[in-house]
Amino acid sequence: MSANSRLTVAVHILSWMALVARKRADPVTSERIALSVNTNPVVIRRTLGLLHKAGLVRSHRGVNAGWTLAKSAAAITLRDVSAALEQEGPFGLHASPPNPGCPVGRGIQPALSRVYGSLDHLIQQHLARTTIEQVLADTLSMTPGSNGI
Amino acid sequence: MSANSRLTVAVHILSWMALVARKRADPVTSERIALSVNTNPVVIRRTLGLLHKAGLVRSHRGVNAGWTLAKSAAAITLRDVSAALEQEGPFGLHASPPNPGCPVGRGIQPALSRVYGSLDHLIQQHLARTTIEQVLADTLSMTPGSNGI
DNA sequence: CATAGATGTAACAAAAATGGTTACATCAAG
DNA sequence: CTTGATGTAACCATTTTTGTTACATCTATG
Which of residues 80-139 of A touch B (CB under 8 A)? Predict the structure, then answer.
C-alpha cells in the first residue's frame, strides 16, 4: 500500500458509472462497481456517500436500487471529485508545534502555510482541467474493442 | 497528527541552519536543531541524513561535530528539499489492482498515472520557485526584533 | 401488505505509515 | 585516549487507511 487511493477509487467509480450509463439509465449497485474496482462494496458505498453529499451522484433505494450520475461525465471535473472527498493537502505542518521561543519556530508555520496554500490552489486548478469524460476516453483508448464489464 | 510533516521539518531545519550561519560558520548539532523543531534529535538526524545524501548539507564528526549547509540558503529551493526526501506524490493508485477483465479496470491506471504525473511536475515547478532564503525571510518578518534562538 | 434487494452506517479488524525513543558502534579533534 | 557528536538499527505508540461483518432502513413490485 502506498499513499491514499481515494481519489483514484472515486474517479474509477464515476468513470465506470459513466461507461455503463452510455447503454442503460438504470441505477448500478455498489456490488457491481466493487467488481470493477476490486474491493469491498462497503468501501464503494462509503465513497459514493461523499460523492452524494457533494451532489455528484444520486442514490436510489427499495427495489431496483443503486446509484446514478447526477451530472454528465463531461460536467464533473477531478476538482469536484477531490473536493467531495474532503481530503487534506499533501503537506502538513509540524506534528507537535515548534518552539515558540525561537524566531524560526515562531514564524515558520505561517510562512509554510502560505507556500502550501498556493500549492493547493495550483493543484485544484489543475484538477479542474480534467473531466471524468476525459479520463474515461483516455482509459478506453487502451482497449479499442471489447467492453466485457 | 495530520498528514506527513517531513517537508516542513526539513525546511525548518535548513532555515534554522541558515539563520545561525549568518553569525557563525561552526557546525550545529542535531540536538540544538531539535530544540527549535521541538522533537527528538534522532528525527532530525534522520532527515539530515537524506539532505546529506542529496548534497544539501555536510556532516562533521569527532570533536566539534555537527552539520553545516553545503550551499547558500539562496541556492536551495523547496524542490531540492522535496526531492531529497524521496517522497511519493499526493495521490496513489489502487491499493489492490483493479479488475483486468473490465475495460475501466484495465485502462484507468495508465490514464490516472498521466494525470498524477503532470500534477507532480506542476508541484515540482512551483516548489522550485521558493528558496530557503525566502522562507527564512518570510519567517523572520513575523518577529522583527529578537533572535533568542 | 409482505417481500426482496439494495442503501446507509456503525463497529471492528488488519495493515501500513508516521513520529518518537533507546541504544550503541563509529569517528576525529584535542 | 578521551570526549562529544554522528549514523543507524531496532523498537514502540499512535494514527491513518483499507477491508469486513452486521444490521436497520427504505421502496418498487408481486
Answer: 88-99, 101-108, 110-112, 114-115, 118-119, 122-123, 126-127, 130, 135-136, 138-139
Write the CATH number for B82.
Answer: 1.10.10.10
CA angle B14, B19, B21 (to 5 degrees): 90
Tens of pLDDT, residue by residue over A25-35, are 999 999 999 99
* Cβ under 8 Å to A: B residues 8-47: 8-9, 11-12, 15-16, 19, 35-39
In this structure, is residue A33 part of a structural domain? yes
Specify the number of domains making up chain B: 1
Q: Is the pLDDT of residue B79 over 60?
A: yes
Residues B8, A96: C-beta atoms closer than 8 Å: no
Residue B61 placed within a domain: yes
Q: Which residue has the higher pLDDT, A3 or A33?
A: A33
Residue B149 lies in a domain: no
pLDDT digits (tens, 9 = 90+) for B1-48: 457 999 999 999 999 999 999 999 999 999 999 999 999 999 999 999
The answer to whether residue B34 sits within a structural domain is: yes
**Looking at residue A144, what is its pLDDT?**
66
Residues A53, A57, A61, A65, Cα dihedral to 10°:
-150
Residue A84's pLDDT band (cuts 50, 70, 90): very high
Nearest-Cα distance to chain A for B3, in Å, is 5
- Look at residue B114 and give its three-state secondary structure: helix
Report how far residue B42's alpha carbon sits from residue B23's, in angstroms, rounded to the nearest whole number. 25
- Domain extent, residue B133, equals 6-140
